[in-house]
Write a structure and sequence with these properties.
Distance between the termini: 36 Å
Number of helices: 8
Order of helices and strands: EHHEHHEEEHHHH
CATH architecture of one domain: Orthogonal Bundle
Structural class: mainly alpha
Helix content: 40-55%
Strand content: 5-15%
Shape: globular
Largest sheet: 3 strands, antiparallel
Length: 195
Amino acid sequence: MSLKNPYGDFEITDPQAMRALAHPVRLAALSYLQKNGPATATQLSEHVGASPSVTSWHLRHLASFGLVVDGPPPSGSDRRQRWWKAVARGFRVEMPDTPEGREAGRLLRVELMNQAMEAAQRWLTETEPQLDPEWSRLAGSANTLLVLTREEADAVESAIEQLLAPYVHRRDHGDLPEDARPVRLLRISLPEATT
């Protein structure tokens, strides 16, 4: 598993890691750490819907695949607590060629889409009503059908990543404009069956 992509995302190719991450608590824990930074199992438990001990077990499972590691405790915190951090700000899945691998990738894809749809619904009910009209207007929604070859689909995906990469890395370089704010971009590409 590597971080060699425009975003510096963790690349998951192992079907066992895909199956592990397909668990809702594990995926929620990893997502929280990627968005908010290091946390303890106790802190995470309220965000992932599990007890601290169950959350700790799931974090150790994620660590066995290299998705999370022990993080340094923030200054002034209790050093006896175990802090966890994500190894990368995001992850991507490389669908395996084997039947077992494809099934593992599909399980993870289902959970990813479920959580993405829940995040979009929460945004609609909790965040969007609080936005000023200018930011609300900028929220994008589209449903566009493209007709592409496999090579063109790969090129489109690559071009999108190259376009977005500088904005993904802004926090790393500390060059955030004063009026910048986080914007969650949920992209779902769904190749359709041929008839």
